[in-house]
Design goal:
The complex is a heterodimer of chains A (254) and B (288).
Chain A: H1 2-24, H2 41-46, H3 50-82, H4 88-99, H5 102-115, H6 122-145, H7 150-158, H8 163-192, H9 195-199, H10 210-218, H11 224-247
Helix pairs in contact in A: 1-11, 3-6, 3-8, 3-10, 4-6, 6-8, 7-8, 8-11
Chain B: H1 4-32, E1 36-37, E2 43-44, H2 50-55, H3 58-91, H4 94-105, H5 112-123, H6 128-135, H7 149-174, H8 177-185, H9 190-218, H10 222-227, H11 235-244, H12 249-286
Antiparallel strand pairs in B: 1-2
Classes of the chains: A mainly alpha (254), B mainly alpha (288).
């Protein structure tokens, strides 16, 4: 009984702050203190907030490109990693992007781009995001891969199918839920990621993503437009993650 | 089994990508950490260990220690909140457990920046918490909640709690129910069953979740920056400053190297502890 109440309070703790933010985005006064009536004004104001809209557009480009690359590369990695003896070195390499502090990966990548004298922009943010997205796609697809009966793949090969045909006709259809879930999660992560994007960018408006824009705005204080934008972003993330969970039940809880 | 060539073809793009954009950048950081800052913020290629002796200076060492303290507190509170929550989920009817877990993990996959920003709104001097406490007459004037160590710990617990609940739940779900029943049948009171049976068997799950929170907390940048208000520095902020304001990349690289070393030692220690536990269990089961 007492544990049930503790669990309810835990959910309140987890969702309360997000709910407050969402409610405030409809508050007429725009202040976090007093409720003065319902309004859609802050959402309407968003359509004029050019910097935010431009950043949102950039974010979608980065997320789409890095998801596409990471999904292909991560899925291939998962297949390769699961069809060999367990290798601790490989596992460590695939685990590293999830555990390395964002700030360390960020400065490492900036040091690399500086050394090879690459110009920074949206393209370098994409290159950087693929690094951690690969790891997440690969983890989800590997879980899926372990549930596949190897005899099925052997049968395909014994019957004379080429490796490519086996991949396309047998492996991929069975992996599909994991691949879709991995792609959705990777898209979400990329949309939300701030610090690595910040260090991989030249910080011109053309290479500013939404989290970068939101970060610079909230450092100067709370504005009602941010609450509205935050509400949209949160609902967007929740939707993608829930679809990912529907696609592959093990994707988000592991 | 795949042929050697096919396996390599599957692995190659990923290995190349991670090699070029994860391993090489880390190697560059390591090498740069042994150089000196140039006059105009570039790098002077002179070998030195000066950055490391400087990192051992009390000024910086104290920031490492404070980061470890904050991360340790966050880990402790996350476990204390997560364990009973995970227990409640594990006790729920089986078909509801999956939904309860999804509800726990959902915020974890959403925007970190916005989740932290939500606490800025709540903890503000004019925020909901201060207003609420004043309204019920508990406090006369607003408390300073934001820009404190308390706020940072709170933010870290908030952000990583879902993951700890998940790992502890996984350990509880694997638990053999008959062991609990045996303990109860033999007359052990509830707390004793918990301390002597349940807790030891779920400890690896607690440790895995705990190490994860600690490691992600100690190198965190966003939470101390937003909830500590640039007043309280953690290692992550210190590294950030070396790259953006102080323009001392080699020193920043040295700090990052030290941070990674600390993290690796912890992860390694945890892996060894888990292996040892597994080994002991196997030895016990192998006994005739």
């Amino acid at each position: 009984m007492i544990f049930r109440w503790h669990l309810r309070l835990t959910y309140l703790f987890l969702y309360g702050p997000i709910a407050v933010l969402m409610v405030l985005s409809f508050n007429r006064s725009g202040l976090p203190t007093a409720w003065t009536g319902f309004t859609f004004d802050w959402y309407a104001k968003l359509t004029e907030a050019d910097a935010l809209l431009n950043a949102a557009w950039n974010t979608l480009i980065v997320a789409a490109a890095s998801t596409l690359l990471a999904t292909i590369i991560g899925t291939m990695l998962a297949v390769g990693a699961e069809s060999r003896r367990k290798s601790s070195a490989l596992d460590a390499l695939l685990f590293a992007p999830m555990i390395i502090p964002d700030i360390v990966l960020a400065i490492g990548l900036l040091s690399f781009y500086t050394l090879v004298q690459m110009t920074l922009g949206l393209h370098s943010i994409v290159l950087s995001h693929v690094v951690f997205n690969i790891a997440f796609v690969c983890a989800v697809v590997r879980t899926r891969m372990r549930q596949i009966d190897p005899a099925m793949l052997e049968a395909s090969r014994d019957l004379g199918a080429s490796e490519f045909t086996t991949f396309r006709r047998v492996l991929l259809p069975n992996l599909a839920p994991g691949v879709i879930a991995g792609a959705l999660l990777s898209f979400t992560l990329s949309v939300d990621e701030f610090i690595i994007a910040y260090f991989s960018s030249d910080n011109t408006p053309a290479a500013t993503t939404l989290p970068m824009q939101i970060f610079s705005m909230i450092r100067f204080g709370v504005t009602p437009e941010i609450n509205a934008m935050a509400t949209i972003v949160m609902l967007f993330s929740f939707t993608l993650v829930l679809i990912a969970q529907r696609a592959d039940r093990k994707a988000i809880t592991g | 089994m795949l042929t050697r060539g096919a396996r390599l073809a599957y692995l190659a793009p990923g290995l190349l990508w991670l090699g070029a954009l994860l391993v090489v950048p880390c190697a560059i950081l390591l090498v740069n950490s042994f150089f000196l800052r140039g006059v105009y913020g570039g790098i002077d290629y002179i070998w030195t260990v000066e950055n490391y002796t400087r990192a051992a200076d009390w000024l910086y060492l104290s920031i490492f220690l404070k980061s470890a303290k904050i991360a340790g507190l966050a880990t402790l509170f996350a476990i204390l909140i997560a364990y009973p929550a995970a227990w409640a989920i594990a006790q729920a009817p089986r078909r509801r457990q999956a939904a309860l877990l999804v509800l726990v993990i959902l915020p974890f996959w959403s925007n970190y920046l916005i989740r932290t920003y939500a606490w800025m709104v709540l903890l503000n001097r004019e925020g909901l918490i201060n207003e609420g406490l004043e309204a019920v007459g508990l406090i006369g004037e607003p408390l300073t909640l934001l820009n404190t160590e308390f706020a940072i710990v709170l933010g870290l617990v908030y952000n990583y709690l879902p993951f700890v609940i998940l790992t502890i739940y996984a350990a509880l779900a694997r638990l053999d129910r008959s062991l609990i029943e045996a303990s109860q049948d033999l007359g052990a009171p509830g707390w004793r069953t918990f301390l002597r049976v349940v807790l030891p068997l779920t400890l690896p799950g607690v440790a895995a979740g705990g190490v994860f929170v600690f490691v992600l907390s100690i190198g965190n940048f966003i939470t101390p920056d937003l909830l500590g208000g640039q007043k309280i520095q953690m290692v992550g902020n210190l590294i950030y400053d070396q790259f953006l304001s102080a323009r001392d990349w080699p020193f920043g690289a040295a700090l990052a190297t030290v941070l990674i070393m600390v993290m690796m030692m912890l992860l390694f220690a945890q892996a060894i502890a888990v292996n040892r536990g597994a080994g002991r269990r196997e030895a016990r089961e192998a006994r005739p």
